[in-house]
Write a structure and sequence with these properties.
With about 220 residues, the chain is α/β, with parallel strands linked by helices. It has two domains: about 120 residues, Rossmann fold (3-Layer(aba) Sandwich), CATH 3.40.50; about 80 residues, no CATH class. It is about 30% helix and about 25% strand. The protein is built from seven helices and ten strands. The strands form two sheets. Strands 6-7-8-3-9-10 form a six-stranded mixed β-sheet, sandwiched between helices. Strands 2-1-4-5 form a four-stranded antiparallel β-sheet, with helices on one face. A hairpin with a 2-residue loop joins strand 4 and strand 5. Bound molecules: adenosine-5'-diphosphate (ADP) and magnesium ion (MG). Adenosine-5'-diphosphate binds next to strand 2 and helix 1.
Length: about 220
């Protein structure tokens, strides 16, 4: 589903990836770990075709980002639900409208939108919050809404960039559990974090980015 082959990338004189190769298979729950500044968000931006390797290839679903046409980028992005550390919920509209907005751009019917919003809010346990505004929600609730938003188009891939970085340990586990539940339904998940404890206690492949290289850690003895 996500494949990096011999990828090189630098920001000006700052090398970030040096011959990086890794593969996330369909249905995997994979972690991407690495300290702050290691290059996790850079990898996510490449998956999202926001930036491109200077050498090597990045494949996402059926797309090879190197050859992707401008007009296909929105199609690629519809394959990938993205969740950020800072939630990014629009503050000028309530939760229902934050979610409905995503479907309105696809010209879905009102009834279909209503049902879909209800379903994703059920998935994250926040149906009762439809009329709330982001400012009225806790961090954990905001992240659950961000998950609902990421899955509303039912993408085959979810990428989460340090989604629990601003949350306490208990809320972190709740968010992780929701993503595990979504993975069990068949969605491929790539979860970036620098929280080694969380990775250690959770099943899944682990890729570590360190010194511009990516290695897969042995999951029997992860560290
Ligand atoms: N837009 C940018 N311009 C220049 N350097 C950047 C930019 N974005 C990130 N970097 C640098 O690239 C490296 C990797 O950053 P990033 O991918 O954000 O790491 P992480 O998400 O693992 O914390 C860091 O050294 C960071 O300072
Ligand atoms: Mg980052």
């Amino acid at each position: 589903m996500i494949e990096f082959n011999n990828v090189y990338f630098s920001y000006k004189n700052q090398p970030v990836l040096n011959d990086a190769t890794f593969k996330v298979e369909k249905g995997d729950f994979s972690f991407l770990i690495g300290r702050s500044g290691a290059g996790k968000s850079t990898i996510f931006q490449m998956i999202y075709a926001n930036i491109f390797p200077s050498e090597g290839t990045v494949n996402v679903g059926d797309y090879i980002t190197k050859n992707i046409k401008e007009k296909d980028i929105p199609n690629l992005r519809r394959q990938v639900g993205i969740i950020f550390q800072d939630f990014r919920i629009l503050s000028d509209r309530n939760i229902y409208d934050n979610l409905a907005f995503i479907l309105q751009v696809t010209n879905a019917k009102k009834k279909v939108i209503k049902k879909r919003v209800f379903n994703v809010l059920s998935d994250v346990g926040l149906v009762h919050r439809q009329k709330s505004f982001a400012s009225e929600l806790s961090g954990g609730e905001k992240q659950r809404i961000a998950i609902a938003r990421a899955i509303i188009n039912d993408p085959p891939i979810i990428i989460a960039d340090e989604p629990t970085g601003n949350l306490d340990p208990e809320t972190t586990q709740e968010i992780l559990d929701i993503l595990i539940k979504i993975n069990k339904r068949g969605t491929t998940v790539l979860f970036a974090t620098h929280n080694y404890d969380l990775v250690e206690r959770t099943d899944g492949k682990v890729f570590r980015i360190k010194d511009s290289k990516i290695t897969e850690l042995n999951t029997q003895s992860k560290f």
